[in-house]
Amino acid sequence: MKLYGYWRSSSAWRVRTALAYKGIRVEGVPVNLRVGEQHEPGFVAKSPAHTIPLLELDDGRCITQSMAIISYLEETHPEPPLLPKDPVHRAWVREQAELVNSGIQPLQNLMVLMRVKHELKGDDTAWAAHWIALGLSALEALAESRAGRFSVGDAVSLADVYLVPQLYNARRFGADVTRFPTLLRVEAACLALPAFQEAHPDRQPDAVKDSK
Amino acid sequence: MKLYGYWRSSSAWRVRTALAYKGIRVEGVPVNLRVGEQHEPGFVAKSPAHTIPLLELDDGRCITQSMAIISYLEETHPEPPLLPKDPVHRAWVREQAELVNSGIQPLQNLMVLMRVKHELKGDDTAWAAHWIALGLSALEALAESRAGRFSVGDAVSLADVYLVPQLYNARRFGADVTRFPTLLRVEAACLALPAFQEAHPDRQPDAVKDSK
pTM of the full predicted structure? Predict the structure, then answer.
């Protein structure tokens, strides 16, 4: 399999974490979002929404959207699991992951920030920080009652895979993360694990050291 | 179980469709987003992100986020299924549903449009129409090669549950849906089914006939 990604994309980062956690090796293919490689016709033929991550299977079939890719990996490589067994706990894991996936990240991705800045002449950093603070406050409230060592109970789950990149983005946009002690405690537990370390943007071959 | 929703929320509509398709009866609790009932402390205690849909189980435990709720229903009430059996087809269904769930809807929900209009002094309708057209173009490209009678193959799936409310919103914001013939064909097949009819906003007790 091949994973098309970009070092700093939080959505690609989620998939890298899932792959590393499950010990699945794939070929990484960098797509440089800063120079618009996601708009090249060869790539759009595989990803009509011009987005990464994109997982290309060995038979050439393609899957985009981090949640679809990670669910596919979970179903085809169930061990170690990223979802608990209990149906309500599974729902809580998905709820917390979706709060990031559909509640925060779509409002602070590069395409949206460019439009806020160039079309609406708005402050794109303030826009991003607003939605991140709002979403992480809700996530902190949920995690407060549900977290053990990790976001939901004591096992690593999808909720953690989505949380870690979102906290990285929160700091990047100047959000005050000290308001989220439960999330920070879980983040520290995650970052102590090799899978989370290996998936970190700074460890990717296409990382650019001095970019904003 | 109780479903907290709002007649016109496309996210609540998705859950209503899944419930109707699976023949699960729940008590509907309207939350009037237009007058801010989602911000009342009693509701926020159940839904810290101030969002509907919210599924409250008989034991009082709560789940928010349409994808988490519908996945819970799929796992606890597997028949009739909303996901195919084949892992790649499941991934495609989730990919198409997520394209709506995280790729389009978050950018055109009420909270975001209010911020575009009041904080950035932008044209909220044009903003919504832009993201809807972009997302549905990608969805059309995916569905073109995958759709049979429905979005992925010949069985109703999550992808259809997410598509129908998004097309309703597309028209509401003036997007030109004639560019998406595959999606329109699938929508017509869905709307011929009782579950999709029953879940329609206009059929909900809290529907307001003359609102924008």
Answer: 0.97
